[in-house]
Amino acid sequence: MRISVTAAVMAVALAGAVPGPARAGAPAGEIETSAGPATLERMAEGFRTPWALDFLPGGGFLVTEREGRLWRVAADGARTRIDGLPEVAAVGQGGLLDVLVPRDFPERREIVLTFVTRIDGGGTGTAVASARLAEGAERLTDLRVLFEMEPGGRTGRHYGSRLVEAPDGTLFFTIGDRGERPSAQDLSMHNGSVLRIARDGSVPADNPLVGRDDALPEIWSWGHRNPQGLALDAEGRLWLHEHGARGGDEINRVERGVNYGWPVISYGTHYSGAKIGEGTAKPGMAQPEFYWDPSIAPSGMAIYSGALWPEWEGHIFAGSLNSDFIAQVGGDPLREIDRLAGPATGRVRDVAEGPQGALWFISEAEGAIYRMTPAR
Description:
The protein is 1% helix and 39% strand. It has one helix at 105-108; strands at 26-33, 36-44, 50-55, 61-65, 69-73, 79-82, 96-100, 110-118, 124-133, 140-148, 163-165, 171-175, 193-197, 219-222, 227-232, 238-242, 249-254, 290-292, 298-303, 316-320, 326-330, 335-340, 348-353, 359-363, 368-374. The two termini are 27 Å apart.
């Protein structure tokens, strides 16, 4: 249940090790922001490659680890490893990725996960599953795979995998180009796209490509490289950010049936320095609302409600994987306002707004979850 208006010690040594005890809300210093100093609290620690978090009603939250582990962290900091996951292929950048607690969790106790699986015919690909979290929060039951991408890819790159519940209850999620650039323009493949499905895995009749023989019906938009941030704003509009290559990380407002251009147009270059595609613009391909050059390797995204910092209402917060900060983007047109940086912001993998308006984030480098509030 992402509460933002889309509604945040070192790694353990062994892959199966249980994180050690942590005191919820342990002080972790302050961080300077455009609105003055903010207090950081370490809410949980001891994770190995944490990838995503989402909040449970009544306190506590869920955390995924890319290697294929799901944890419940209670309000007092106690951790429980949750069994009953789908079979996860932890390959390259893939594994157990996003987690979503839908709005109707109190009635259905259902969560949604994105993960990497081995695809029939070879290779690996992004999949989406739902399951019920048992009352004791120790096991998933009634697991259903709702979606598997077509076809599988041979690389271990660009799985995308951010997940959002739309206002109508349908699910938006992202898939990267899997390192196979031309596939992002091929509508017969799921690569390089934002997709939309119903909670039962069916395809909504109003998806833009339904009825086309040359296109997969789950596709909502395409021409994306590797979107790892996805969020709704206060008006219900969908936004994402995606990795460029060497420069050209983009923030896009995602619209139904729109082509966002990769790899035909880009504001970056190949890692070799060579030109990408045909330039920065082409008719029929959308322009980004904002882009970074050089790249910040963005991951995780929240659009802030203004609950604790009214001056930040509508601002986008995006983690950086290569430069160890949280980027704050806002205004019209969009511009980068600030870079929130400190000892806790190493490889920020996810950013979320919590139940009382705090900003939460995952530091992959620290293996920890942090909460940020205005300093008193």
